[in-house]
Write a structure and sequence with these properties.
The protein is an alpha+beta fold. The protein has three helices and five strands; from the N terminus they run βααββαββ.
Length: 144
């Protein structure tokens, strides 16, 4: 049976650390630590920051969901600006931003976005190694 942790934060730049704290706790509760927890937290920070910066809906709330289903971990970040889908692009060396989705593509096993009736959702999926009793989860390299 999948386990899900979901929370909402105000669409404000100062809320990214709050999102990271919630995710770190959920991951630790599930025994997911080390590099995988760092990667998931980093990508969550990138996706939350994108939602906060690019959502044009005033007083919006950003929804963050983390689902553990067997050996699959799914991170989803949603905001109510459903018509502005993210696009991966090559950032010039002198650009201050524009690398978040490239980072998501590099660290997640898969990622994408979808339009929902009243929101858009950007997601990243990670494959976990099987857990032996008392062990922490670890990422499985893509193609393994």
């Amino acid at each position: 049976m999948p386990e899900t942790k979901t929370f909402r934060i105000p669409k404000h730049r100062s809320q990214a650390p709050t999102a990271r704290q919630h995710l770190r706790k959920a991951l630790a509760d599930w025994g997911i630590t080390d590099d995988l927890a760092d990667g998931v937290t980093l990508l969550a920070s990138e996706l939350v920051t994108n939602a906060v910066l690019h959502c044009r809906v005033a007083y919006a709330r950003v929804r963050v969901a983390l689902t553990l289903n067997g050996t699959e971990l799914l991170l989803e970040v949603s905001d109510p600006d459903r018509d502005r889908l993210p696009r991966l692009h090559d950032a010039a060396p002198d650009e201050e931003g524009g690398r978040g989705l490239a980072l998501v593509a590099a660290l997640a096993d898969a990622w994408g976005c979808r339009q929902e009736p009243y929101a858009k959702c950007v997601w990243a999926r990670f494959t976990l190694a099987e857990l032996a009793e008392g062990e922490s989860a670890r990422a499985v390299p893509a193609g393994a």
